[in-house]
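Supplementary Note 2. Why include the ligand at all?

Several targets in our set were suspected to adopt different conformations when bound, so apo predictions alone were not considered sufficient. For every target with a known small-molecule partner we therefore ran a joint prediction. The input for PBG is given below.
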Amino acid sequence: MYPNRRNRRLRTNETIRALVRETTISPNDFLVPLFIVEGKGIKEEIPSMPNYYRYSLDLLKAEVKALYNMGLRSVLLFVKVADKLKDNSGTEALNPNGLMQRAITTIKNVCPDMLVMTDVALDPYSSFGHDGIIHDGKILNDETNSILAEMSLSHAQAGADFVAPSDMMDGRIFEIRSLLEDEGFHDTGIMSYSAKYASAFYGPFRDALDSAPVDIKNIPKDKETYQMDPANRDEAIRETEMDINEGADIIMVKPGLCYLDIVRDIRNTFNVPVAVYQVSGEYAMLKAAAEKGWLDHDAVMMEQITAIKRAGAHMIASYFAKDVVKLIS
Ligand code: PBG
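The joint prediction is reproduced in token form.
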């Protein structure tokens, strides 16, 4: 009791604050999302994501080496697919010589120790911008799962260490795990987007990949029949439990900041590694506010990353990964 107990004693100077600090950030905390395009010599900035780029495979090599040398050792790959290759069932996703498959081998060739995780979902390949096959205005679940499993196998064959299904179909982890096991890919991991919400924070990402749901009659304009309702908390536990039972090695909560209660609930309930995706809209918001001079970019960035980790994230997929590592090294 006061005055025997004065909490400010432990805040007297930076040395003592550092000694008692509960949460620290290091390069090991990050998964770096990478956007990849077809072509040569391309490094194009995404308009709604300042200082974030799409790379063609030739320039991707240098970027991956640079990340590795900074201590960033895990990447999460997304590809931008040409319109003419898109269809309802994402056929191009299974092309053994597709952009994703070539990206995996390219990275493994230049940087064998880089951990490669790949996005598994139909939306970049879908002519309708959805994460599933559409029939009669509905997203088909089980038919989509078969493709997601084939897609995962194709990524594993190309050398992916982890596949990361981001679609939110029911039962897809079981389908993917079963096919990987049957084909001998026992060590290929699955990072499941388990509690992925139907969030408005994905806008800039959909710009980056040109993957927004199309505005056509009879095609759902949003993803609310498969992604979770932002109003729900207990449901995230049910989703996560299913994915763990079906064979997920790492589970993910997405977006980040608005969903930290979910992260803590999951940490308190299950004993599995938890990833958090600090999404494109979260990145864009801070960049915009900083550009206007309204927020201190670096300070707010560190506060947000620290908050995500403090809430319980074992790893964070973040567009700020490089900025953070530059700042702390
Ligand atoms: C789609 C996917 C999305 C993101 C990752 N995978 C968008 C969506 O669900 O529409 C969003 C990531 C971000 O906003 O940074 N499978």
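Residues 24-328 form a domain with the TIM Barrel fold (CATH 3.20.20.70). The two ends are 40 Å apart (CA to CA). Comparable summaries for the other entries are listed in the accompanying table.
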